[in-house]
Write a structure and sequence with these properties.
The chain is an alpha/beta fold. It contains 14 helices and ten strands. The strands form two sheets. Strands 1-2-10-9-8-3-6-7 form an eight-stranded mixed beta sheet, with helices on both faces. The protein has a two-stranded antiparallel sheet with strand order 4-5. Helix 13 links the parallel strand 9 and strand 10. Helix 2 packs across helix 8 and helix 4 crosses helix 5. The longest helix has 20 residues. The two termini are 22 Å apart.
């Protein structure tokens, strides 16, 4: 596969360029991931991962845990099993606790862990780490995963992300952390002008995201009403077994739209795997990868290319140019 930058920020597979463009013209629907696509989360969800990991590790007794930077976050996400930010936080915590117990350099050990992960996510992290370190105490303390309102890791993460008022609105209980949440750092990428262009082109515009409806509504505001919410999915509100890359939510959305050919726009390998699995189940889906909201867009571009993604854009703002 050979990607060609046909215009600035637009990369298409040069070997089958005509086929790609023909496929795009047949699309009658489009569905978006939210985080990293409609919303820039680099200072909201990414900071929540960093702050939650630091808080839990210091409470555990590790005085100087490594800063969870964008390279670590992207490293976990590149494995295809850590689309859920709390899963990622848990994986980081296990790795740092193990490194501390073994006397290893935290950053080097995290890289080692990442290189041994697969798309089973936290299962692969637990399996690898437990072979070389005893982390049963932190696992018992966190007891992850579990019901959101009851599990300690979910509780800390959500309180930091939502803030005291939104957390109480979602869960009906007081937050231990006063003040606004990191969700206030969300930056909108989607706007009315782009949505106007999309609605002119497509019969249906939907969302399939790992976010819950309340947080999507909080950040997108009235723009959320311009999506086909009957044929959208907010997976944080659904059972854990439906999380990406399970294709069920995307397949249901495409069928609900009565779409013959649908474009799915996402920014992660999990999004791509979900789109592939949906195609295998009979849905005609064209995947479009987004790189621009990554702290390392060139690395994200290379990751998508290695995995066979044939349409890659810097931003959804470039969609009208390829449509």
């Amino acid at each position: 596969m050979t990607l060609k930058e046909t215009r600035q920020g637009i990369y298409l597979d040069d070997d089958i360029l005509d086929d790609i463009l023909d496929g795009i013209t047949k699309c009658d629907g489009i569905i978006f991931d939210c985080d990293g696509v409609l919303i820039d989360i680099s200072e909201s969800y990414d900071f929540a991962i960093r702050n939650t990991a630091k808080y839990v590790l210091e409470e555990y007794g590790i005085k100087n845990p490594i800063l969870v930077d964008s390279h670590i976050i992207d490293g976990f996400k590149s494995t295809g099993g850590f689309n859920d930010e709390v899963d990622l936080t848990y994986g980081v915590i296990l790795a740092i606790v193990a490194a501390d117990k073994l006397g290893y350099d935290q950053k080097s050990f995290i890289s080692e862990v990442i290189s041994n992960l697969d798309d089973t996510g936290i299962k692969s992290a637990e399996k690898y780490i437990e072979k070389i370190a005893d982390v049963h105490d932190i696992r018992e303390r966190l007891c992850y995963p579990g019901p959101h309102a009851e599990n300690v890791l979910y509780r800390i993460f959500d309180q930091m992300f939502y803030g005291e008022h939104l957390y109480k609105k979602v869960y009906g209980i007081e937050s231990e952390f006063p003040g606004p949440g990191l969700i206030e750092n969300d930056k909108l990428i989607i706007n009315d002008i782009l949505l106007d262009a999309l609605h002119e082109r497509f019969s249906n515009v939907g969302i399939v995201t790992g976010r819950g409806m309340v947080s999507a509504r909080h950040s997108l505001g009235k723009l959320l009403d311009r999506f086909d919410l009957k044929n959208s999915a907010f997976l944080e509100d659904e059972p854990r077994n439906l999380a990406k890359p399970n294709p069920e939510s995307l397949v249901c959305a495409v069928r609900g739209m009565n779409s013959k050919c649908c474009m799915y726009v996402g920014d992660s390998i999990e999004d791509y795997i979900m789109a592939q699995k949906s195609t295998e189940l009979g849905s005609d889906i064209i995947f479009c990868g987004i790189t621009g909201t990554s702290r390392n867009p060139k690395e994200k571009l290379a990751l998508f290319e290695r995995n066979g993604v044939k349409i890659i854009l810097d931003s959804i703002k470039l969609l009208p140019e390829i449509l």
